[in-house]
Design a protein that fits this description.
Helix content is 12%, strand content 36%. It is mainly beta. Helix 3 packs parallel to helix 4.
Length: 977
């Protein structure tokens, strides 16, 4: 090997050799080495070369570690593709132009490390890592999302300085199985550590902690000298309680020669009485310390763990945690930060999980690779069920690679290393073999390894499950499809053929204004045995903060340049194509339930209500029924307050005493208020908050807002008709002192991402709904009434629109009718649009709110009295589109600071949208920095509005939320404040 090239790492050319996954890399294990390690994070000397075998230059710059060079001022910028590879070569080939980062720094090796085993840990590097010390090759590693460790004992000297060089090659054969839906970066993305241990060391620790309190700890012991010394032993301690060594296991090891001269095995056991079990609702943890002793009793090595006692099993078609069938309210999560790309800090990860916890999520799928070890610690602590996914996705070449023996070792290696590292985390309840890589022998090999090493958890893989949801011979213990239509899931659950839990690994795509029918899905899941939940795609909008003037990432210096989802002036959220890529997948990277700065999108409030631990429903006339929808916890950790919203009055409040309900129990409670006799609409809301401080929320944090209607609205009665004249211009448009454009018919919305990718937007354009020709047919005046009849001429058909304006006491009654021909069988909306004069900056309304809501996404917006500045109504989805709507609005006012303005009362609850942008403004802009807000307000009142669905990647909205052809009628009154 060295004859061909003086550096054996370069001679291997690992970026081109699929059979080379590592050289000199130590085995993965579950022993935590972070305590006492020297952190090498910070500025490193850096050069970016055009190819791995290009010569180094004379000039060095600096690069921060951990970090990606694509976000730190180099000419190699981020690039986004979903399925396609960023180069044309077929597996395992890679392009000759292959950016290669060379990192160097001096390391002072502590003198007190003399005689110890010295190990380098590189947390993660994309995609091939080559390690040199003082010019000598040490080893190499692939797998961009797991740590690689190298023994430096023979190449460094304690008390002296060494030069550490880490070379990272961006493209390799491994890139073909890291083809995930995310930005392509390059660099060292997690921390670099140097640590020292005794030559006699714990090679691995495996914990089995069951819900009955039985604890088994299996230890592997090695010595860097080769042969194990005589007399070593292992001790353990669990929160101060000593563990006993299993002598029967020792004897068995000796008899079958599992204790050899270079590998030792020991087992510790105990039974914990009155054990506190771990679940996502009750994340009880114990402190476990394992010590390895020399023959004289001194401690050679120590491993500390936080463990939880719990069982995971599948019984029939149910996934059980501690014997209970639990709902999986999950989200897929990528490592992402708008300033640092793939590099996320401990504080970032904690903030992610705290936010998810506050909005009712209890599960995470680590899409699509193992996360930083700290995330699993946080999931253990805060309480999340984790689907731990191996770093395998070969989307562009899935079919070829699934059975390619050249990739067999890589598949098994990545799956095995994930399990070996994360097996002691109670939060991990399922192992995943990867994502979107078809299904072949390589997957079966990985599944076989997992089942042999860890039979305590199920294995899932969507590529296997899609071959047959009920097939017992496939390498998935769970039916985990992607975006399966709800009707198919229901049919499967009721078919009598279901053999596995059905938990969708992706089921609602959060791209732009999306996640319609989420409440409908969960109503069906909770009512149907065999359906157990799923994971929304995904947590983040992966918008990178970009400087508009030069198109570069803002980088680490961009902190403070965004707030509430909005980038500061001179900056924008970049998506695919914004860094000069000619081949890209655009805004498909912006598909999260939060904005790039972690600001929740409106769907988060929808999910919070869907996952509410406390539910409320009407019970006859004298009370309501409360129910506990948790699996393991009572209601003692919650507080409540009653709120009564009266349509023709204000909001009354009263303290609420929550009953002591165990999981699944219900109780009737009396109404806290006596309803007034006015007969108006009334809604009762229970504001549920944390009673004390939780690890994820301070006291008083809102947990849910369950609501029930106590009384329906009375029929709308219009004021007496007057004979005042109604003014319309020569075009039949209403003239009003506060309107700059009178109401006209609106049939179109600025297409959402779902509309565009689902094909609806193209159909609407073909029909001409975005720019119909308005033709006045007749204008009839009759004292205090004017009737205007117009035809809206579109290639898809002519829509007849009639408006009747009637002067009534105190204002104006507008009665409208639109008749859509049969060809227009699925339009975006049918309603009125008008524009107001400047200065009306406050919207107050009675209806759903305060958050944005739509016909198929309104469960999270309770009915009540709400008020917001007009500029805060708009939701800044990364690609401008329809947003800011409020569903079920009964009436609203738009006012100026001096309390002047206009008031609108609707005939029945309608969809209303008030923003500073016309639909054409939104549709013509690619980013928000291109939008210029109008001085006045653009107001939509919709008789019918199409649901949002999730058709950008998944099912469209349901038929009940479509806007059909035929006659649509609506009316509203307009008056001055």
């Amino acid at each position: 090997m060295t004859d061909a090239h003086p550096d054996p790492l370069i001679a291997l050319r690992p970026w081109e050799a699929p059979e080379v996954t590592s050289w000199g890399r130590l085995p993965m294990n579950a022993v935590d080495r972070r305590a006492g390690a020297v952190c090498l994070d910070g500025d490193w000397r850096f050069q970016l070369l055009p190819a791995p075998d290009a010569p180094l230059g004379e000039v060095w710059s600096s690069s921060y570690v951990p970090g990606v060079w694509t976000m730190q001022g180099t000419d190699d910028l981020p690039r986004y593709l979903n399925v396609r590879m960023p180069f044309d070569e077929f597996p395992p080939d890679v392009p000759a132009a292959n950016p290669t980062g060379v990192y160097e720094r001096a390391v002072d090796v502590p003198a007190e490390w003399a005689g110890r085993r010295i190990v380098l840990q590189v947390g993660a590097a994309e995609s091939v890592l080559l390690v040199h010390v003082d010019g000598r090759p040490v080893g190499l590693s692939k797998d961009s999302h797991l740590a690689a460790e190298f023994d430096l004992t023979g190449v460094v000297r304690p008390g002296e300085r060494a030069t550490l060089r880490l070379t990272v090659v961006k493209w390799s054969d491994a890139s073909h199985i890291e083809d995930q839906d995310q930005w392509w970066h390059g660099g060292i993305t997690r921390s670099v550590l140097l640590y020292a241990r005794d030559p006699l060391y714990l090679a691995d620790v495996t914990v089995r902690a069951r819900r009955d309190g039985d604890l088994r700890v299996d230890c592997l012991v090695r010595d860097s000298g080769g042969a194990l010394p005589e007399g070593w032993y292992v001790s353990g301690e669990l929160d101060g309680q000593l563990l006993t060594q299993d002598t029967e296991f020792d004897r068995a090891c000796a008899e079958d020669e599992r204790v050899s001269g270079f590998l030792g095995e020991a087992r510790l056991r105990t039974a914990v009485p009155d054990v506190r079990t771990w679940t996502a609702e009750t994340p009880e943890l114990y402190g476990l310390t394992v010590r390895l002793h020399r023959a004289d009793g001194t401690v050679a090595d120590t491993s500390r763990h936080r463990i939880g006692f719990r069982d995971v099993e599948i019984t029939g078609r149910d996934l059980l945690v501690n014997g209970e069938r639990v709902f999986i309210r999950g989200v897929n999560r990528h490592d992402f930060h708008p300033l640092t790309g793939r590099t996320v800090s401990y504080d970032d990860m904690r903030a992610d999980l705290v936010l998810l916890k506050r909005f009712g999520f209890n599960a995470i799928r680590t899409a699509h690779y193992p996360n930083d070890p700290a995330l699993y610690d946080l999931a253990d602590e805060l309480g999340f069920y984790v689907v731990d996914e191996a770093d395998i996705e070969s989307h562009d070449h899935a079919h070829e690679i699934a059975d390619d023996p050249r990739y067999l070792g890589a598949f098994v290696d990545r799956v095995a290393r994930t399990v070996l590292r994360d097996k002691n985390h109670p939060s991990v309840i399922i192992w995943s073999l990867g994502n979107e890589s078809d299904y072949g022998a390589n997957h079966d090999a990985g599944a076989g390894w997992v089942r042999r090493h860890d039979p305590t958890r199920p294995v899932q893989y969507e590529g296997a499950a899609k071959r047959g949801w009920a097939d017992p011979d496939l390498a998935s213990d769970i039916a985990c499809p992607m975006y399966a239509p709800l009707q198919e899931c229901l049919a499967h659950a009721m078919s009598g053929r279901q053999t596995k839990p059905l938990i969708q690994c992706e089921y609602s795509h959060a791209m732009g204004n999306s996640n319609g029918t989420l409440a409908d899905h969960w109503a069906a899941i909770e009512a149907t045995p065999g359906l157990q939940g799923g994971f929304i795609w995904e947590f983040w909008d992966h918008g990178i903060l970009q400087r508009v003037n030069d198109g570069r990432p803002a980088g680490r210096g961009g902190a403070g340049l965004y707030d509430s989802g909005v980038a500061a002036p001179g900056h924008r959220w970049a998506y695919g194509g914004d860094f000069g890529e000619t081949v890209h997948d655009g805004a498909f990277i912006a598909d999260g339930v939060v904005f790039p700065d972690r600001t929740p999108k409106p769907v988060m409030f929808e999910h919070r209500e869907i996952a509410a631990p406390v539910r409320i429903e009407r019970f006859r006339h004298e009370g309501v029924v409360l129910s506990n929808h948790q699996h393991f916890r009572g209601l003692d950790w919650l507080s409540g307050e009653w709120e009564l919203a009266l349509a023709d009055g204000g909001t009354l409040t009263a303290p609420a005493e929550l009953p002591g309900l165990r999981p699944g129990e219900t109780a009737a409670v009396p109404l806290p208020f006596e309803l007034p006799d006015d007969g108006g609409e009334a809604w009762l809301t229970l504001r549920v908050t944390t009673a004390g401080d939780e690890p994820w929320a301070p006291r008083g944090t809102v947990v849910c807002l369950p609501q029930v209607r106590l009384r329906r609205a009375a029929p709308v009665r219009h004021a007496p008709v007057t004979h005042r004249p109604v003014a319309v211009d020569e075009d039949g448009l209403l003239v009003h002192p506060l309107l700059t454009a009178g109401p006209t018919l609106s049939l179109w919305r600025a297409p959402t991402d779902n509309d565009e990718l689902g094909g609806m937007a193209a159909r609407w354009r073909d029909w001409g709904l975005d720019a119909p020709t308005r033709k006045v047919v007749a204008v009839r005046r009759d004292r205090g009434r004017v009737t205007v009849v117009c035809d809206y001429l579109c290639p898809g058909g002519t829509v007849r629109h009639e408006q009747v304006f009637t002067a009534v006491e105190g204002g104006l009654l507008v009665e409208e009718c639109a008749e859509l021909p049969e060809a227009l069988d699925d339009v975006a909306r049918v309603g009125s649009v008008f524009e107001t004069a400047a200065g009306l900056n406050l919207l107050e309304w009675f209806g759903r709110g305060p958050w944005e809501s739509y016909p198929d996404r309104g469960a999270g917006a309770p009915v009540g009295h709400h008020a917001l500045p007009v500029d805060e109504l708009f939701t800044p989805y990364l690609r401008p589109q329809e947003s800011g709507g409020r569903h079920g609005v009964r009436r609203f006012t738009l006012s100026a600071p001096d309390a002047t303005g206009l008031a609108v009362r609707l005939d029945r609850p309608r969809q209303v949208c008030v923003t500073r942008h016309r639909a054409t403004d939104l549709a013509s802009a690619a980013h928000h920095d291109e939008l210029v807000p109008r001085a006045g307000c653009v107001v939509h009142i919709d008789a019918a509005h199409r649901g949002l669905g999730t058709a950008s990647c998944g099912p469209d909205t349901f038929a009940t939320y479509l806007v059909a052809a035929g006659v649509h009628r609506w009316s509203w009154t307009l008056r001055l404040l």
